[in-house]
Amino acid sequence: MLKLTYTETSFHLECLTQSLEEWVAQRVILALRIGQSLCVEPSSASFLLPVALPGLEQLKFEVQWDERKTIVLCVCDTNYLEVTLRGSWLSDGSEDVKGVFVTTISDRTELLLHKLWLAATSCASAMSE
Questions:
Q1: Cα torsion angle, 97, 6, 23, 70, sign
Q2: pTM for the model
């Protein structure tokens, strides 16, 4: 399962071994116990990856085998590729930009996508130093 945690200024991508259903059920139970509103709805999430990342061709190959079309790649410009994922958005239901997006694709594709995201974030932080 992939979990994207959105904040006001950025997002964080995690690769979890727990099933999507199990994770969502635990979030629902937590919200009930602490008296917090929880909204779960179908959604999509997108982020950019630099086209120069090693391993991006492997991701393109893996996406071809995704019969459910959970992941879609689109060239933005000469420098970036947009990754769009279909899944579920969990939030408190407010118009706030804070929330969590979760989805599940093949384990292999999830691990590869996480690895690429980590490489992209380390490149971005190295460039800003």
A1: positive
A2: 0.86
